[in-house]
Specification:
The complex is a heterodimer.
Chain A (H helix, E strand, L loop, with lengths): L6 H41 L1 E2 L7 E2 L3 H9 L3 H29 L7 H13 L2 H12 L4 H10 L10 H29 L3 H9 L4 H29 L3 H6 L11 H11 L3 H29 L5
Antiparallel strand pairs in A: 1-2
Chain B lengths: L1 H22 L1 H8 L10 E7 L3 H17 L4 E7 L1 H13 L6 E5 L3 H4 L8 H6 L11 H4 L1 E2 L2 E2 L1 E7 L1 E6 H7 L10 H11 L13 H12 L15 H15 L15 H7 L5 E5 L3 H5 L7 E4 L10 E10 L6 H11 L2 H9 L11 H6 L3 H16 L1 E3 L6 H17 L4 H12 L2
Parallel strand pairs in B: 1-2, 1-3, 10-11
Antiparallel strand pairs in B: 3-10, 4-5, 6-10, 7-8, 7-9
Classes of the chains: A mainly alpha, B alpha/beta.
């Protein structure tokens, strides 16, 4: 049918359709422009200026970036804290989530209920979660109370101790975040092709061997997705340290995002905050790109 | 075709309209609550912190007084909780959207001073105010670098609050007005038992600094306005303060840097016999939820006598305000006799207006009134203005998480002060 139409007619139709399409898409485009493109461009501009929340603004070139890396006493510790958090949190989260998903195999009765239980921390407000953890971890709290009364051992002041605070932030974050990845792994596990599993079983694969050589390779796309997303969220961590330790003691648990928040909204230095945000952005993009590069070696999409 | 095109146009219009509605939300949000504001004159927005519905209700009462006194103006109130107030203010400042009449806390004024119109004697007169209306030193609260930026609505100073029940249970003598640092140490150790500590250390700026200042007689900012955290006297007093936790064991270490109100919470939940807090919380401590009998005294005197700072909050007029005269009229009403009387009579805050101050004590129960008045009189007797640097707020934000390490003994107070001094001092 189309072939019989004259080029002119189809051209004008295309133009009309293009115009209509633009009309339909314009609200979304407008939203994208107002809420994404403009702020992104503005944040680049800000990062190149000395930009106090109010008062005189002045162009400073790469001054903010130089300040961050050479002068600011909190930036490197913040970068280090973010890295430490990600290095501890991501593997732990994935291992716990995968173990839970595997443990809640179809043979478990009431596994739906268990899934809901493990998922609850994901959906409860993080402020409430942090409050409960704080009440358990402080010296007058549950853990120390039980430990001193039952075993006579005084536990460290977890959230105020430089060496323990980050570990506790990671623990709480894993507890809070494992349910999400567990659900992803559970869903992937249910969709494993039974034919492959059966073939492996006939070949004598069982237990750990089955998991290592059959299940995990077949889960690798899900694991890859979970890893990418978890690394990104771990680099953006803010609420857990902010609520649990306030970034302290000292700056022992202050991650990059909290540094950005403090610079921008406590110290009114929006230029420096924007520069730090761009450093974080570049970091996230680089790591994510690396992962996509590396996935060819270990992610199997064939099934 | 026409229908679809029409639909698309409708959708676009609808979205634009809703965006426009969003866009005007910031200055319009208060307009929705304007209700019976009336008046065809200028619209003045009054921005204030309020943590609860009862706070907002109280502010609405003040608002009604302001509207009555300025029938030709439309006055709107917008609020945010205390902790968010300054974050929101910063955001509003960067977007040039600051309310004409903006509330400001004296301790934070140095950071925000340039956002406010400097006020002259002539301005005060226009607002129907006179310097003599206010209690001595009150205008210092809203002054920075010798310039007045607002008018105070309340005055405050730090007190030592104590738990009469815990003192009685420990068989210790209660603190007395006119006591000394030595008396304080004796009281803290006498009130410390297996079940509770005698004292709870603070994390907020003057919740912890008040005692070091009282002991040394020195402020952490010198007379020329430079940061002086490493002043030997102040640093020694601060070290003494930290030792209450680390050496004397009369106070518990703070469990987390996010416990920014540690001392006050410990005291009000009955876990510590004493804590330092501002006069602004006197009424809430007297009616505490834990149900203990609360007492209060002025800060203990050090070797150089009793040194206490006058603190408080006030209202200023923002630089962006288009109708300064109207804003001045609102300002005059907000700290006028009627509004101040109402605030004092409700026991909400100790008013800055001298003639309204007695009403505050009248609002208290008979059995505590004389004690509170005696404590207030002693505490306000020798107050001096609080000196501040431009980055004072940052200094405190940076110090706070370090204090936790000091209290656990993982860092030393002199080191922490040195570090902050070198980071923020000139």
């Amino acid at each position: 049918m189309l072939k019989t139409r004259s080029p002119h007619r189809s051209g004008s139709l295309r133009r009309t359709e293009t115009r209509q399409a633009l009309g339909f898409i314009s609200p979304a485009l407008l939203g994208l422009a107002v809420f994404t493109v403009v702020p992104v461009v503005l944040s680049i501009v800000m990062s190149l200026h000395h930009w106090p929340a109010f008062g005189e603004r002045s162009f400073s070139g790469l001054g903010n970036y130089v300040d961050l890396f050479t002068k600011n006493p909190d930036f490197w510790p913040a970068l280090r804290n973010t890295a430490v958090f990600a290095l501890l949190y991501v593997p732990l989260n994935l291992v716990v989530a995968l173990s839970l998903a595997l443990a809640l195999s179809p043979r478990i009765r009431g596994r739906g209920a268990f899934r809901v239980l493990f998922f609850i921390p994901v959906v409860t407000p993080i402020v409430a979660n942090a409050l409960v953890w704080k009440m358990m971890l402080q010296p007058q709290g549950l853990f120390n109370g039980v430990s001193t009364s039952v075993f006579g051992i005084e536990l460290p002041n977890f959230l105020a101790d430089r060496n323990w605070a980050m570990i506790m932030v990671v623990m709480m974050s894993v507890w809070q975040g494992m349910g999400y990845n567990m659900l992803i792994f559970s869903a992937a596990l249910e969709q494993l092709p039974t034919s492959v599993i059966e073939a492996a079983r006939i070949d004598g694969a069982q237990g750990a061997r089955m998991i290592r050589s059959v299940v995990i390779p077949m889960l690798s796309p899900a694991i890859f997705f979970a890893t990418v997303m978890t690394i990104i969220t771990s680099l953006q961590v803010f609420a857990q340290p902010q609520l649990l330790t306030g970034g302290g003691p000292g700056n022992a648990t202050m991650p990059l995002v909290q540094f950005i928040y403090n610079q921008g909204f406590q110290f009114q230095n929006l230029g420096l905050a924007a520069a730090a945000a761009w450093v974080l952005f570049v970091l996230i993009i680089l790591i994510t790109a690396l992962q996509f590069k590396a996935q060819k070696r270990w992610v199997h999409y064939e099934h | 075709m026409h229908i679809t095109r029409g639909l698309a146009a409708c959708a676009a219009v609808a979205v634009t309209a809703s965006l426009a509605a969003c866009g005007s939300d910031d200055d319009g949000s208060a307009a929705t609550s304007s209700g019976n504001g009336g008046g065809d004159g200028a619209t003045i927005v009054w921005d204030m912190w309020a943590g609860s519905q009862s706070d907002i209700d109280a502010l609405e009462e003040t608002l009604a007084i302001v509207r009555d006194e300025n029938p030709d103006l439309t006055v709107n109130l917008q609020t945010a909780p205390w902790n968010d107030y300054f974050t929101k203010l910063t955001t509003n400042l960067s977007s040039g959207n600051v309310a004409c009449v903006t509330s400001m806390n004296g301790q934070r004024l140095s950071t925000y001073a340039e956002a406010f119109h400097p006020l002259t004697a002539e301005d005060l007169e226009k607002a129907g105010l006179s310097e003599d209306d206010f209690s001595p030193g009150a205008l210092d609260i809203m002054s920075y670098d010798g310039q007045l930026y607002g008018v105070p609505f309340d005055v405050a100073t730090m007190l030592v609050y104590y738990n009469k029940d815990l003192f009685a249970a420990a068989g210790a003598d209660e603190p007395q007005i006119g006591w000394t640092i030595d008396d304080f140490e004796a009281a803290a150790s006498a009130a410390t038992t297996d079940a509770n500590k005698g004292f709870a250390v603070g994390m907020g700026e003057f919740q912890w600094m008040a005692l070091p200042i009282a002991r040394s007689g020195k402020q952490p900012v010198d007379e020329s306005g430079n940061l002086a955290l490493t002043d030997p006297d102040f640093a020694a007093a601060a070290t003494w303060y930290a030792a209450l936790v680390t050496d004397d064991d009369v106070a518990a270490p703070v469990p987390s840097a996010s416990d920014t109100g540690w001392g006050e919470t410990e005291y009000s939940s009955g876990n510590a016999a004493m804590a330092v807090d501002g006069t602004w919380n006197a009424v809430s401590y007297l009616g505490n939820d834990a149900g203990f009998a609360a007492g209060m005294v002025n800060l203990p005197a050090g070797d150089n006598g009793a040194t206490a700072l006058i603190l408080g909050s006030g209202y200023g007029i923002s630089q962006d305000c288009e109708d300064k005269d109207a804003a001045l009229a609102v300002l005059g009403s907000l700290v006028g006799k009627e509004a101040q009387d109402a605030m004092a009579a409700a026991g909400r805050s100790y008013p800055a207006r001298a003639e309204s101050q007695p009403l505050y004590f009248e609002s208290l129960d008979d059995d505590v009134r004389d004690d509170v008045q005696a404590a207030f009189d002693a505490a306000f007797a020798n107050v001096e203005g609080q000196r501040s640097t431009k980055n004072w707020d940052q200094v405190n934000t940076a110090l706070q998480p370090q204090l936790v390490s000091v209290y656990t003994g993982q860092a030393s107070m002199p080191d922490v002060l040195d570090q902050a001094q070198s980071q923020f001092g000139d």
